[in-house]
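Students often ask why we bother encoding 3D structure as a string. The short answer is that it lets us treat folding as translation between two languages. Here is a chain of 224 residues written in the first language.
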Amino acid sequence: MIWCVEDDESIREIELYSLKTTGFEAKGFADGKSFFAALEKEKPELILLDIMLPEMDGMEILQRLKTKRETADIPVIMATAKGAEHEKVRSLDIGADDHLVKPFGMMEMVSRVKAVLRRCGKEKKGTLLRAGGILLNTEERTVSVDGERTELTLKEFELLRLFLEKPGAACSREQLFLRVWGDNYVGETRTLDMHIRTLRQKLGKYGDMIETVRGVGYRLEENP
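And here it is in the second language, the structure alphabet:
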């Protein structure tokens, strides 16, 4: 979960949208008060923190985060104004992990988030599978679509996992049955089609990424 602390609603919504459509779960806050209230209940993987905030500015928030043992290890990326080098130096001294200079592009923001997570060891290799706005965590066995958690059945999860592991590759019906149901399955062959149909529905606008390969089976479109 990535948290964005930004008082400008339009910027905050763009940040959240960009993170969610690249597979992250994200939550936004307009000020330090609401941010710290939420922090009492859960901890994010990373915080994107604007410096210019009402009442409690980003520097004060960063200082409080880094002086408390339970929050000191949360990576923080600061958003600073162009030319404000003194703010950048000060925040680095306090403990910020990286910086974004406003105005910044959303692709740069997402890339920096991924880079900081890698450096801090927050992104576990081999456990996250992504395609479009779909994110599957093999370790936690969770799926999110555009940052929103989506509940799948065991069979739906295994089907999606197989597709994400082999993007663009056609999977035969036999392969899918063997991998998901096992070689002892006895039942209707239409069971597979029914599961694919419900899986597509649960994936929303990304459901069409699962394509029917006539005479073979199914595949996940590699580039939506």
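Translate back mentally: The longest strand covers residues 76-81. Keep this in mind for the problem set.
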